[in-house]
Amino acid sequence: MKKTAVVLFSGGIDSSTTLAIALKEGFECLALTFHYGQRHAVELEAARRIAAAMGVRDHRVVDIDLRQLGKSALTDKIEVPKGRSVDEMSRQIPVTYVPARNIIFLSYALALAEVTESRDLFIGVNALDYSGYPDCRPSFIKQFEEMARVGTKAGVEGHPVRIHTPLIHLTKAEIIRRGTALRVDFALTHSCYDPDPQGLACGFCDSCLLRKKGFHEADIPDPTIYSRR
User: Fold this and answer.
1) How many domains are there within the chain?
2) Staple 14 to which of 44, 124, 160, 229, CB 3.0 to 4.6 Å?
3) pLDDT band with cut points at 50, 70 and 90 for residue 136
4) CATH code where residue 172 lies
5) Which residues constitute the domain of residue 140?
């Protein structure tokens, strides 16, 4: 029997590559996507397309309304930063940070891993070419894994969940090369924080700029169609 794994899956470059890695490693993957009240809900359709293209048989979309908490440009009426340099992105935690988002997402994934008796959990966090979020760092993952070990039935009974972070020390270019080697169709992915009404990427938010930078440095054509606005 194949081992099962829960994969946090947003429909972007990182999570799609992570899903491809988990499948390559022989896991039967349960992809977990969140509709959390994000302004860029177009990513949900991207996630569905990619999961289907990769042959994932169990893809779940969970509704959580983080708009009730606010204080993020992704869930509230706050302007998304545009045209920033990589240095500016890493100087401080940006307004696109969603408070405790990965803690919330990992908690759901951990609960799902318990009920499906999965011992492995994959998340595509990255600590190099990223937007400065504190919940994408190795120290956070290490602490969450320890919390899971002491705070779940599976953990205290000697069956702790292992959290895999295969991209955490890779640049965006390295992630794109890895995904390309695994035949990820990046044309299906979505990264933009502020897409236009047709769902096209703006081309200037932090996520779009990091995406462009990654494809440029990987020397791989960017298949993204950007908005003309």
Assistant:
1) 1
2) 124
3) confident
4) 3.40.50.620
5) 4-218
Residue 224 within a domain: no
Tokens of 191: 């990264």
Any alpha helices (H) in the chain, and if so which ranges?
13-24, 42-53, 86-91, 101-115, 138-151, 153-156, 172-181, 206-218
Q: What is the DSSP letter of 160?
A: P
User: Tokens 């048989």 correspond to what residue?
Assistant: 57
Residue 228 lies in a domain: no
Q: Residue type for 207, please?
A: S
Return the C-alpha torsion angle 169, 170, 171, 176, nearest 10: -160
How would residue 229 be classed by pLDDT, with cut points 50, 70 and 90?
low
Residue 86 domain flag:
yes
Residue 103's nearest CA partner among 58, 69, 128 is 69
- Residues in a beta bridge with 33: 61
